[in-house]
Amino acid sequence: PDIREAPAGSRSEAEAAAGIDVYAYPHNETSTGVMAEVRRVHGDEGALTVVDATSGAGGLDFDAREVDVYYFSPQKNFASDGGLWFALVSPAAIQRIERVAASDRYIPETLSLAGALSNSRLDQTLNTPALSTLALMDEQVRWINAQGGLSWAAARTAESSSVLYDWAERSSVATPFVTDPSHRSNVVVTIDFDDSIDASAISKALRANGVVDTEPYRKLGRNQLRVATFTAIEPDDVRALTASIDYVLERLG
């Protein structure tokens, strides 16, 4: 394998390399608030581009022609629950799935893409999914399409995230964790605070007053807030959040 690394808060770029048959990367990195462009890597003939889109799908626009497998579960922008897997799969990826399945490689049934493919053609799943997950997903897809589709959803998340990034840029005690604007996610925003401010005190005060889920990713170990700006979230609610943070900051001192 050829592993490309980047410091937390930035991203690496997939580049063509000899002998690589799958180029895989996330559309959006949920813990740090970094997003990537979905683009095909033109490497060896037959190489596939595979994108993990769990926190990006339904909230970030992309060109499906630039990817062979775009896969996700619906608990983020689709406002549903996890435990169910969706994928857009190109003809080239289908051929790869069928070729691997025909080999002597051991593949557990629960990890068999060939099994998922054959079941999907029958409108079936290997295991029975929760109906509530399907109902929530269906409702969200219908709502997004009625508003204008993915381009509308992407514009909405861009608006919501910009509210937070602009607020942080104006603040004297906060700054966007992701310093390169082109790397900043439109669906997960991470905001660093000055050492003079305890970000955990902000999130605790917010939670005590009904404003929840602004805590950072714990393993990152930073003095920050992390806020989802998924498609279902109203941009005006994000504006209200910045006002709430200002209110708390005024009283922390």
Summed up:
With about 250 residues, this protein is of the alpha/beta class. It has six helices and nine strands, in the order E-E-E-E-E-E-H-H-H-H-E-E-H-E-H.
Your description of this structure?
The chain is α/β, with parallel strands linked by helices. It has 2 domains: 22-147, Aspartate Aminotransferase, domain 2, CATH 3.40.640; 150-252, Aspartate Aminotransferase, domain 1, CATH 3.90.1150.10. The protein is 34% helix and 14% strand. It has a 4-stranded mixed β-sheet with strand order 1-4-5-6. A 3-stranded antiparallel β-sheet has the order 7-8-9. Strand 2 and strand 3 form a beta hairpin. Helix 4 packs parallel to helix 6 (235-252) and helix 5 (199-208) crosses helix 6 (235-252). It is globular and about 65 Å long. The relative contact order is 0.13.
Topology (elements, then pairings):
Blueprint: E1 22-26, E2 28-29, E3 34-35, E4 48-52, E5 69-72, E6 86-89, H1 91-101, H2 113-121, H3 131-147, H4 150-170, E7 174-176, E8 188-193, H5 199-208, E9 224-228, H6 235-252
Helix pairs in contact: 4-6, 5-6
CATH class of the largest domain: Alpha Beta
Measure the end-to-end span: 51 Å
Nearest-integer average pLDDT: 96
CATH architecture of the largest domain: 3-Layer(aba) Sandwich
Structural class: alpha/beta
Indicate the percent of residues in helices. 25-40%
The gross shape turns out to be globular
* Cα radius of gyration in angstroms: 20 Å
Order of helices and strands: EEEEEEHHHHEEHEH
CATH fourth-tier homologous superfamily of the largest domain: Type I PLP-dependent aspartate aminotransferase-like (Major domain)
Number of strand elements: 9
Biggest β-sheet: strands ordered side by side in the sheet? 1-4-5-6
Strand content: 5-15%
Regions with little confidence, pLDDT below 50 for 5+ residues? none
In this structure, how is the largest beta sheet organized? 4 strands, mixed
> CATH topology of the largest domain, anyone?
Aspartate Aminotransferase, domain 2
Number of helices: 6
Number of domains: 2
